[in-house]
Amino acid sequence: ARDPIVAYLPDMFSRPAPMRADVAIDIAAELDAIVAMLACHRSQFFDWLPHNHGLADQVPTDESSRIVWLREWYASVVRPRAERYREELSTAIGADSAASIEFIEMFEISEYARPLDAQSRRRLFDTQ
Questions:
Q1: Among the listed ranges 10-19, 31-40, 51-60, 92-101, which one has the minimum average pLDDT value?
Q2: Burial grade of 24 (CB within 10 A; 0-12, 13-18, 19 or more)
Q3: 3-state secondary structure the chain
Q4: Residues whose CB falls within 8 Å of the CB of residue 117, separated by 6 or more in sequence, listed in order
Q5: What is the residue-averaged pLDDT of the chain?
Q6: Above pLDDT 90, what percent of the chain?
């Protein structure tokens, strides 16, 4: 009866148009939980992606070292997003708050689905 809200996951492409960060969330407090969830996808994060990025020889064999490695790798992937979208963060939450954010997750809301209103933003993203 109603279109859903559709949010695109981040990419670092710039053509034909760079991603627009409609929603940006500080994920530093959740980083360990995110890494634990990623680690559940063993073949994806310990085999395929390391192979694809030429890092297969860097993946440790023991479980605890793998988690440390995955956290460092994931941090290196998401850290550049905060810098790239620092201006949008500053606009959304203020320059002082934005300056200290190291890790973000962001989403672009699709123009081909239901718009994101304030109530849906709070419900889906727990933001102001």
A1: 10-19
A2: buried
A3: CCCCCCEECCCCCCCCCCCCCCEEEECHHHHHHHHHHHHCCHHHHHHHHHHHCCCHHHCCCCHHHHHHHHHHHHHHHHHHHHHHCHHHHHHHHCHHHHHCCCCEEEEEECCCCCCCCHHHHHHHHCCC
A4: none
A5: 90
A6: 59
pTM of this structure: 0.81
Q: Tally the residues of the chain.
A: 128
Peptide bond before residue 16 is cis, with ω within 30 degrees of 0: yes
Q: Which amino acid is at 23?
A: V
Rounded Cα–Cα distance for residues 128 and 89 (Å): 13
State the average pLDDT over residues 30-43. 96
